[in-house]
User: Which sequence fits this backbone?
């Protein structure tokens, strides 16, 4: 038995001198050099005592070495947990403890804060810095490729839970490879493409979609450490494709340097991770001559639908179910609804995850016995098969491409002195798609100050989860059953970010 994912993504490139990463300073890293670096990182993982099935957590700045650590983990059969760099030590503590990670890799600047967290979880800690330095990367001879099959676990990606407890989505080698193969073909990627990569790689979009597609196609990536409009505009003339979140496109539209001539070499702009406004579609086409391709996916499934590469791309929709993916719209009992009716989207296919780590009850709730995953997203399919997402059954907020569950933020706010209760909602935001809004009711006689609340939340919540707007009310609107009417709050605050 070979190593299913490694052999497909990296094995065929190991001897290739073709460029893989084009770095901001203009230097290049070829496939062969990257593969050698990944083999050394695999050796370092083995030297740290990790073997097939063991877990390594990564909270690292985006860099060639972070990507090589992930490739090294795949090579060694080690399950990797990429963590958002915005997560606080308290949040990281939960992830590594729940996963039983044997090793935490972090940036050197975070080591002092995270060392006690790792120790408490029984994990070793080492550093990998964006410039290639660090205690981990000095170690080890190359490791051989470990044998892993299609159903073996490759990665754990944690998603927020509606109760505040995050869930570890178990992604197998076959989950990741099958989706990448479909996308590479559906979006017509070849070795002649150059992908502009400005996404984070702790997230499905930047790692399993963008990077894996580029690896399968054998095309180079312009590998930017983060999104910066000026840097993206500087590199666009060399690129043929870009994957981004709606924020990328709105910020690029704000820059007068974005012209048709600048993107003359581009063949494809893709958007995902959050809804793209129809107005953004219209403005982008008017400015560049390109229609953005919007698609729909989740942490648990990777990509489920996409507007066609060749064919009609309909603004406001997320396109058609991808080849091999079955999608249906169901009522609350799981009965499939006719075309045009709104219900909960369920999907089945080789892209759908294996379940939630150490949560068999939660897995059984959301993953049916017949293999259909209950996404929790509300939508409908039109007569032509195009899917439109109209809402999220679990009140999920997607801000800047990142998922925020209101309950987690509410729990953090309600724990603060002087807070009686809170309600957290999403409101339309011109830059981030949605912005987090917190409506807070003080304890009787308590005096709450917004700066103090923001300061307290900055310790316990990642920055993207922190409210972009805070309002105080004497009471929250409730229905006759006592349930907070968030629809009323959404209507009240829908224009809060409009000015």
Assistant:
């Amino acid at each position: 038995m070979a190593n299913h994912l490694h052999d497909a993504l990296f094995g065929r490139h190991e001897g290739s001198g073709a460029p893989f990463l084009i770095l901001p300073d203009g230097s290049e890293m070829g496939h062969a050099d990257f593969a050698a670096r990944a083999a050394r990182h695999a050796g370092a993982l083995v030297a740290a005592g990790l073997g097939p099935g063991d877990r390594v957590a990564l909270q690292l700045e985006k860099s060639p070495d972070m990507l090589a650590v992930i490739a090294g983990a795949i090579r060694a059969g080690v399950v990797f947990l990429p963590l958002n760099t915005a997560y606080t030590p308290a949040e990281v503590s939960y992830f590594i403890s729940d996963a039983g990670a044997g090793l935490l890799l972090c940036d050197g600047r975070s080591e002092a804060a995270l060392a006690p967290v790792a120790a408490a979880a029984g994990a070793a800690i080492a550093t990998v810095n964006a410039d290639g330095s660090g205690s981990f990367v000095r170690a080890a001879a190359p490791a051989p490729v470990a044998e892993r099959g299609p159903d073996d676990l490759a990665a754990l990606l944690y998603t927020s839970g509606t109760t505040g407890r995050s869930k570890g989505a178990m992604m197998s080698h076959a989950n990741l490879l099958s989706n990448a193969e479909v996308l590479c073909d559906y979006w017509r990627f070849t070795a002649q493409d150059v992908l502009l990569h400005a996404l984070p790689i702790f997230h499905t979009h930047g790692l399993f979609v963008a990077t894996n597609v580029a690896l399968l196609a054998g095309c180079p990536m312009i590998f930017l450490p983060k999104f910066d409009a000026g840097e993206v505009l500087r590199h666009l003339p060399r690129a043929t494709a870009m994957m981004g979140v709606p924020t990328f496109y709105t910020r690029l539209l704000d820059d007068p340097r974005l012209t048709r001539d600048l993107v003359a070499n581009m063949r494809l702009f893709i958007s995902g991770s959050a809804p793209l406004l129809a107005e953004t579609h219209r403005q982008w086409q008017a400015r560049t001559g390109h229609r953005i391709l919007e698609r729909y996916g989740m942490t648990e499934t990777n990509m489920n639908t996409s507007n066609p590469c060749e064919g009609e791309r309909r603004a406001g929709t997320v396109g058609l179910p991808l080849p091999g993916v079955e999608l249906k719209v169901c009522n609350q009992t799981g009965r499939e609804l006719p075309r045009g009716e709104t219900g909960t989207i369920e999907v089945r296919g080789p892209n759908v995850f294996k379940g939630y780590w150490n949560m068999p009850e939660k897995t059984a709730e959301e993953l049916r016995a017949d293999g259909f995953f209950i996404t929790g997203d509300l939508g409908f399919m039109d007569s032509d098969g195009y899917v439109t997402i109209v809402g999220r059954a679990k009140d999920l907020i997607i801000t800047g491409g990142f998922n925020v569950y209101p309950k987690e933020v509410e729990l953090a706010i309600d724990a603060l002195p002087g807070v009686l209760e809170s309600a957290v909602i999403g409101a339309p935001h011109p830059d981030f798609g949605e912005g987090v809004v917190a409506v807070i009711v003080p304890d009787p006689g308590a005096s709450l100050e917004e700066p103090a609340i923001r300061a307290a939340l900055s310790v316990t919540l990642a920055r993207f989860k922190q409210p972009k707007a805070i309002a105080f009310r004497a009471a929250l609107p409730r229905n006759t059953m006592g349930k907070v009417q968030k629809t009323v709050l959404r209507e009240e605050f829908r224009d809060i970010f409009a000015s």
Summary: The chain has a mean pLDDT of 92. The radius of gyration is 22 Å. Residues 31-47 form the longest helix (17 residues).
